[in-house]
Amino acid sequence: MSAYDMNTPLYSALKKYIDERGLRLHMPGHIGGPGFNQSALKVLAEFDVTEIPGLDDLHAPQGIIEEARLLLAKAYGAQESFFLVNGASSGIHALFMALKRPDAKVLVPRNCHRSFFAGMVMAGTNPVYIPCQVNGELGAALAVSPADVEALLGIHHDAEAVFITSPSYYGSTCRIQDIAALCQKYQKPLFVDEAHGGHFCFHPDYPRPALEQGANAAVNGLHKTLPVYNQGAVLHVKGHPDTKRLRSACSLVTTTSPSYPILASIDLARNLMEERGRELLEAARIMAVRFRTRINMTKGLKAYDEDELKKTPGVFSLDPLKILIAFPGLRLNGFEISRILRMNIEYR
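and the corresponding structure tokens:
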């Protein structure tokens, strides 16, 4: 294998198979593109294959998928990483379904994603809700506080795990290190829905990733922040109490017909971020600072910075690429602003 192949084993093996132009006597039924009349679909269809010899098996990886998994875990500082082709939601579902008791009690935040509720229904989990800290000006839930987590752990000694969301949709992160220390004190694993933070570990001036701060598992929706196809996500573990059980849960909620275009895009994005992530994120951070400054120079608009949002209890840091804008000087609501921006920027 060349050095490039070793850096992107999954994509490279897939590309090699395509370049060989063999007769496709396997699924999908579009047979690599001829089944489509549209040229745009034909291009993507070349990469849309199934688990044939040489392309490994997502549910029992031993070849290129396993090699790519090891590279992924190393890049993210995980003991083990799992590819998720059903989106970050499937990683959330798997974490709930890997709990040991069918009626387990779990601490979850009030601002959790809908996948939490689906996971709890499937696993039969009993939720204990952690109150959210809400920013008074925005009315937005930004974090959960260590004090609230500790208070609930002190009451619910039989809770099996703590599950939080960080960063929030607005880019604010919780005090994960403090919450992780509390979980360690009470001997509970900490799981983090880090869907919007898949880029954090590639730049030192961005918020620290959850695993680095003591979380036992974290889910990244890579398609949200990296050049990855929609539904492309990963689940990382570091000190999870039962990795074997979690592996089985992941398989249970994952399709047996995984998307190779999604898998290849994750492989390529991970390699890109390892090679150029710091450079790209620094350029993006500088642009965000300039944009935030210009917004605050515009009458009627306000872009919040990290120091302002950290006044909300429980907020530790802010993703510099999340620009939260309010319109205190305008007689327009968010829906109206959205329509104006869409018509004057997206379609100009």
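(Above: one complete record from the training split.) The longest strand covers residues 80-84.
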